[in-house]
Amino acid sequence: MSNPALFPADFLWGAATSAYQIEGAPLADGAGPSVWHEFAHTPGRVHANETGDVACDHYHRYREDIGLMRELGLNAYRFSVSWSRVLPEGRGRLNPRGLGFYERLVDALLEHGIQPMLTLYHWDLPAALDRLGGWLNPDSADWFADYARILFRALDDRVKLWVTLNEPWVVVDGGYLRGVLAPGQRNLHAAPIAAHHLLRAHAAAVQAYRAEGRHRIGLVVNLEPKYPAQETAEDLSATLRADAYINRYYLDPVFLGGYPPELAEIFGPAWPRFPDADFDFIRQPLDFLGVNYYSRQVVRHAPGVWPLETAGVRQDRQTHTALDWEVYPQGLTDILEWVASRYGPLPLYITENGAAFYDPPQADGGVDDPLRQRYLRDHLRAALAAMRGGVDLRGYFAWSLLDNFEWAHGYSKRFGLIHVDYASQRRTIKASGRFYAEAIRTRGITLGEDGNGG
Ligand code: FCB
To answer: Which domain holds residue 290?
Structure first.
């Protein structure tokens, strides 16, 4: 009898987190501050002036959290390393106690049969480096490669999946263009420079890995398919601009050796001329690509809207999350197929996918979250559809393992498969977490395929 399972036996079933969002204790054991520590401590920057000082206290509770991963049946876990725990000033002096935390974490994961995927940079640049210009400083690529090398030497014997950067687009758009994320700059001229140095930093780390590492390294980008509101010339070219800005900005240089032409139009006089040699360097071969997918955008031409002259058209009939992101599972299939056809048949992971909803605990202490459960089911089905269409998808990481510090939204938006009561630090697996565990256990059979399952 043929095996009825829908996903392959070696598929990675994971959940993702990042250091600043869950760890807490940002200055413990000799760690230096990061830009996120400083940003969150600047009044008015984060919802209700919340900070990552305690977060999920994962720094102290990681063993309990790994126990929960086991309970969900995860065979993979994606986390990030806080650069300034390892190098308090971002470069130079090593802090062995900071590095020791990640060694213990990795060992504990492996003891439980959970494969670590380690992200070197999930937005928490050491504050000391920001004072030297951060990603605007051309030396940032070397700083990053030096830091990466320390991690490769310490952990490549145990970590087989490495990620250089998480979502460089968000770092630049939120941190250097719009000023809504750390380090809080709002500067059209700064943004393309920061983007370019992030790409150089990514490449420098990949190059260092080829010399030091023996496993696999890739990049994680957030992608958001763009669809024209109307088939007019104006909306179609607005859609191309929006697509270039988010989807092709980082992948074109990494895989095709140059920036999309629309960027010069978007940035106008702020678009620099970059050295040709940089593009050969940025195009380092990768072992895989990680795609973070949350939503799509329907785009219209919007004169005067800085800087893209585009706007999203809200699809009022569709379900929206607590962040007002449209739930659109088909977009996941579309974007995975687009990546495979534009950039070639490389191994892909869905490195983040999830939803914030309002789902308070019930009187009996349980957390019923039907909208998140449906989101998960429909996106896993969409992933499967992409695989059937020929996409080489190797794993899925739900965002997030735990409710956590959602950047400028503080603790007000909950993405977890596991509810966290921040006052007591009590964790409760939500119904969506149980649903995910069943999908993992049955390799997808409980997802149903007829549109009526779940
Ligand atoms: C992504 C981030 C992640 C989390 C989710 C909701 O852009 O990588 O840290 O904030 O969005």
So the answer is: 12-446
Q: What is the pTM of this model?
A: 0.98
Q: Which of 262, 259, 127, 281 is nearest to 205 (CA)?
A: 281
Report which residue type is found at 299: V
Structure tokens at 268: 């106008």
Q: How far, in Å, is the centroid of ligand 1 from the Cα of 404?
A: 10
Specify burial of residue 366 (Cβ count, 10 A radius: 0-12, 13-18, 19+).
middle
Catalytic annotation present for 23: no
Is 5 within a domain?
A: no
- For the question of residue 111 being annotated catalytic, the response is no
Q: Ligand 1, closest atom to CA 356? A: 6
> First CA to last CA across the chain, in angstroms?
25
| Average confidence score pLDDT of the chain | 97
Half-sphere CA count of 279, side-chain side, radius 13 A? 14
CA of 289 to the centre of ligand 1 (A): 17
Q: What is the pLDDT of residues 312-325, one digit of tens each?
A: 999 999 999 999 99
Task: For 295-317, give the DSSP string.
Answer: --EEEEE-TT-TTT-EEE---TT
Q: Which of 167, 224, 262, 406 is catalytic?
A: 167
Residue 4 lies in a domain: no
For the chain, the domain total comes to 1
Count other Cβ atoms within 10 Å, centred on residue 371.
18
In the chain, what percentage of residues exceed pLDDT 90? 96
CATH number where 55 lies: 3.20.20.80
3, part of any domain: no
Domain-embedded: residue 1: no
The predicted-structure confidence for 5-62, as pLDDT tens digits, reads as follows: 799 999 999 999 999 999 999 999 999 999 999 999 999 999 999 999 999 999 999 9
For the CA of 323, the closest atom of ligand 1 is 6
pLDDT grade, residue 449 (50/70/90)? low
